[in-house]
Amino acid sequence: MDITKIYQYKLRKLFNPRVLPFEHDILFLQTWEGELDEIISVKLKNKSALYLSWWNELFNSKKIDEIISDEPYDQNYYQFFSFLRILPNLLSINRTENFYNKNLFSSYIVSQLKSDLSFLGKEKENTYKTELINYLFYDMGFADYFIVEDNKLYFRYSSDEVIKVDELINATYDLVLKYSNEKYHDDFNIIKKQQIEIVNFLLEKDENFIFTLEDQCLIYLSPEKFIKTYKNDTDKIFKILASFLSKDQAALNVFVSKMIIMNYNYYILKNNPNEILKLKAFCRRDNLKFFLLLKSIIDLHFFVRKEDFKELHLEYYLSKIN
Questions:
Q1: 104 CB-near residues (< 8 Å, 6+ apart)
Q2: For residue 189, what are the CA distances in angstroms to 45, 168, 185, 280?
Q3: SS3 assignment, position 40
Q4: Under 8 Å between Cβ of 38 and 99
Q5: The pTM is what?
């Protein structure tokens, strides 16, 4: 899928500003307020290129707002228009220091959404991916409106109705076309196709896409590999985590290390914080090693908080972590 190539380009560009450009007939990146910021844009037939997030410039937004504010439209539908504006940001690039954690969380969550979690059972796969995709969109500034079932994305249209996102996108364009200039109708079809492809990309199983980054530990980003190794050879995972304390890591290695720690946070500690005691036992009397690992885990602020460990007699270590 072309979207995969663009996302892989984004990952490489985070660490290599001179990465070879991608080729795409419709989408490209435009610089925005400096060379560290690039926005995904779309080539159109009847208008100059447009930031994909600005698709609402092609129709009468005020009129649409008036229409969907009344029955039979649910107010959640108004939020769906906001969702379509932020969705393309998944492909945009921001390499500023302030955006580091957003890039980290986004890259990790996309890798998990595209992973096969069926080994955990269908119910758990749906639960985990629903939780993760809502975290992803929340981090982008959007609220909790989504459900994942069988790797299909649904939108909470109302308190008692969910609709597949691709179907709701199609229905949205049926509405929008009524209040737009006919000369832009071909352009809307172009934009709609790209939006649907981005949605499909997120939940299309493809664990190999992340290997555009070169790091020998990346195999442990796979949830199945990580969880099964943890169950069968816990010390092996702990040795890998301990290796992340090395000061010789390049920026890319640090990024990958943090994503694998996020696996530990999400699949092991989130529901069983007492598992941290196994890591402490592994470190034996090396208090500094355990402290640095514990600090790395907590400092991510990813599904694990300092408070989660307060009943585990770790006050000595916790008192030193802000």
A1: 255, 258, 259
A2: 11, 14, 7, 56
A3: strand
A4: no
A5: 0.94
Token pair listed for 25: 């007939």
What torsion do the CA atoms of 264, 268, 271, 277 make, to the nearest 10 degrees?
Answer: -100
CA distance 21 to 201: 20
- What is the dihedral sign for C-alpha 263, 268, 272, 278? negative
User: Measured between alpha carbons, how far apart are the two ends of the chain, in Å?
Assistant: 43
Cα–Cα nearest to 133, from 145, 115, 120: 145
Place of tokens 């072309």: 2
CA diameter of the chain: 73
CA-to-CA separations, 91 to 12, 40, 50, 94, 202, in angstroms, rounded: 12, 6, 15, 10, 11
Q: Left, alpha or beta for 121 (phi > 0: left; psi -120 to 50: alpha)?
A: left
Q: Which long-range contacts (CB under 8 A, 24 or more apart) does 5-8 make?
A: 6/40, 6/91, 7/90, 7/91, 7/110, 7/201, 7/209, 8/209, 8/212
6-47: pLDDT as tens digits: 999 999 999 999 999 888 889 999 988 777 789 999 999 888
pLDDT exceeds cutoff 70 at 71 = no
Quickly count: other Cβ atoms within 10 Å of residue 30's Cβ.
13
Which of 244, 192, 152, 204 has its CA nearest to residue 56?
Answer: 192
Share of the chain above pLDDT 70, in %: 99
3-state secondary structure 237-304: HHHHHHHCCCCCCCHHHHHHHHHHHHHHHHHHHCCCHHHHHHHHHHHCCCHHHHHHHHHHHHHCCCCC
CA distances from 33 to 16, 39, 93, 94, 259 (A): 19, 10, 12, 10, 29
Question: Listing from the earlier edge strand, what are the strands of the sheet with 146-149?
Answer: 146-149, 152-158, 161-164
